[in-house]
Inverse folding.
């Protein structure tokens, strides 16, 4: 890959929780303008990887390059200021705040604060239900609406790369489709996206490139259209050479 096309490069990171090593020598590259999915069973390390990219977990070793700068070790707010954002697992939102207040929480950095009205309009256009419910407490939202709010809040920081963790967990199929179509639209508007979803088939369908994780390692990578069934088996049953030995 030409280095100027590369938005993010994770190089051989190792991450531990106390004595337990959750990521082993994980490397990946995210090309600008793409949708990349990270698939793997429960506990594979997907959230740990996203949290490490965002600076929430600190790698013991390795490098994380974003737009040519090493962001390894920076605090999360500096990483967000550089153009990374996360829609976290469990679509966690501030339940006692209104929808609009939640969105404004995503625009806390000076650059984004200046653009907040323009960006509010943008996310209300992408997710019209959030405009309708702007004045309501987030605790009244359905699961799908909460997921939309979590994505929209991340967009309020004007990211160049959006990481979405467990984008469809627990949601009805019709809502999932709606969210994926919006993700596609956001991508077509120029945003690069990393997707994590237990719904492997759907995330393969909507992404350009995929990485498969198993027990804290990347065990397979390729164009999503080419990975297919093999990736699904790998992700869930770990039919990896290392496991057969
Ligand atoms: N805060 C923590 N402390 C200790 N161990 C943790 C912590 N968070 C995650 N782990 C462990 O690290 C491993 C990777 O967890 P992680 O949450 O990254 O997986 P995941 O692929 O996101 O799983 P899921 O599909 O369930 O969201 C698991 O074995 C998990 O038990
Ligand atoms: Mg997770």
């Amino acid at each position: 890959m030409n280095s100027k096309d590369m938005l993010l490069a994770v190089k051989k990171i190792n991450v531990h929780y106390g004595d337990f090593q959750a990521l082993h020598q994980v490397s990946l590259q995210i090309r600008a303008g793409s949708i990349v999915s990270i698939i793997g069973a429960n506990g594979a390390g997907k959230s740990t990887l996203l949290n490490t990219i965002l600076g929430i977990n600190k790698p013991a070793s390795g490098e994380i390059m974003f737009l040519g700068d090493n962001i390894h070790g920076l605090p999360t707010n500096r990483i967000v200021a550089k153009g990374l954002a996360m829609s976290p697992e469990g679509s966690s939102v501030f339940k006692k705040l209104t929808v609009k207040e939640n969105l404004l929480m995503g625009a806390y950095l000076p650059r984004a604060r200046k653009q907040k009205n323009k960006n509010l309009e943008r996310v209300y256009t992408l997710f019209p239900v959030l405009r309708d419910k702007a004045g309501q407490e987030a605790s009244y939202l359905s699961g799908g609406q909460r997921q939309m709010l979590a994505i929209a809040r991340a967009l309020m920081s004007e990211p160049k790369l959006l990481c979405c963790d467990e984008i469809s967990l627990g949601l009805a199929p019709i809502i999932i489709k709606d969210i994926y179509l919006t993700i596609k639209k956001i991508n077509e508007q120029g945003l690069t996206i990393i997707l994590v979803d237990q719904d492997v088939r759907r995330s393969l369908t909507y992404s350009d490139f995929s990485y498969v994780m198993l027990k804290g390692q990347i065990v397979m990578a390729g164009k999503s259209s080419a990975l297919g069934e093999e990736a699904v088996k790998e992700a869930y049953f770990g039919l990896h050479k290392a496991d057969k030995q």
Remarks:
- The domain at 3-83+161-244 is CATH 3.40.50.300 (Rossmann fold).
- Residues 161 and 235 are 24 Å apart (CA to CA).
